[in-house]
Amino acid sequence: MKAAPFAYHAPRSLAEAHDLLARHGPDAAVIAGGQSLVPLMALRLARPAVLVDLNRVAGLAEITDGPREVTVGALVRQRAVERSPSIAARLPLLTAAVGHIGHPQVRARGTVGGSLVVGHAAAELPAVALALDARLVLTRAGGEREVPAGDFFAPEGGSIAGPDEVLTRIRFPVPPAGAGHGFHETGRRARDFALAGAAVVLGRDGAGGCAYARVAVLGGGPAPRRLPGVEAALRGGALDDAALADAAAGLVDEVAPVGDVAADAAHRREALVTLLRRALTDAARRAAPHTH
Ligand SMILES: Cc1cc2nc3c(=O)[nH]c(=O)nc-3n(C[C@H](O)[C@H](O)[C@H](O)COP(=O)(O)OP(=O)(O)OC[C@H]3O[C@@H](n4cnc5c(N)ncnc54)[C@H](O)[C@@H]3O)c2cc1C
After folding, report:
1. 97 Cβ inside 6 Å of ligand 1
2. Which entry of 60, 123, 170, 283 is 20 to 30 Å from 111 by CA?
3. Do the Cβ atoms of 186 and 286 come closer than 8 Å?
4. pTM score of the predicted model
């Protein structure tokens, strides 16, 4: 099948893009990497009458190092994140996770912003944005709002980005010095969307205990999830194998995996506990003591 007919615009500026979106309302859709939208259009599951291509808009595809955060433009390709030395050094959780997305060809086109706006429950970047306390900057004609990742993903799946809004950049605060990360996922076949996965950042106090914990999972329900209960159970405690296994087991109180043709809910839950334990173990091993 081929896409339904549509008008195509390639604005050069954000103002022009905002203007097109305001003018065409819900009939318009922005396109970034096209890795989610084009297949949907080809199947006629999405039929935007007007496509607003963001690829020529200046200033949306930069990775910028600030003193306490890294800002990633919404149009930065997933592959560019994977290869960025500054992200590897400052946000290694992001580097570890992004390499699990699809094939290299998908990552070469797919953008960071597109993946976050789609907000798939089993996608890597939404879970990482939650674990890293990212802030997402949405703009529209005459306005801008900054939304914490915790408020960006809709509980039933997807994101709260409005049809006239453009996600322009994502601000990732750099975790405390010495913090360690862990990322694990599993899928039915290599390169498929994951069935389940866990993204973790841990920091130690002077005595080696847990001073800082950020935990999010993919495949834990209809939306990506941060797990504040698991984080609270970890904070202030030892980071030994028994404590990490206990904390991972506590995940069952905070997730509601959905069963589908790929895996039933019980299998997903079991996989989540195992993957979270592995991610916590890696993060604890990498976390240096005396950092706070
Ligand atoms: C074979 C295959 C395998 C894949 N495997 C995985 C995987 O394992 N894990 C994973 O996470 N993803 C996977 N993907 C999806 C991929 O990561 C997509 O790149 C991503 O979901 C969408 O990014 P995009 O830039 O291609 O967005 P597009 O397809 O261009 O757009 C997707 C949606 O987001 C909106 N949008 C995009 N950018 C913006 C913006 N800046 N502001 C506002 N709205 C915007 C569009 O209007 C559209 O509704 C896979 C895709 C393919 C084709």
Report:
1. no
2. 283
3. no
4. 0.97
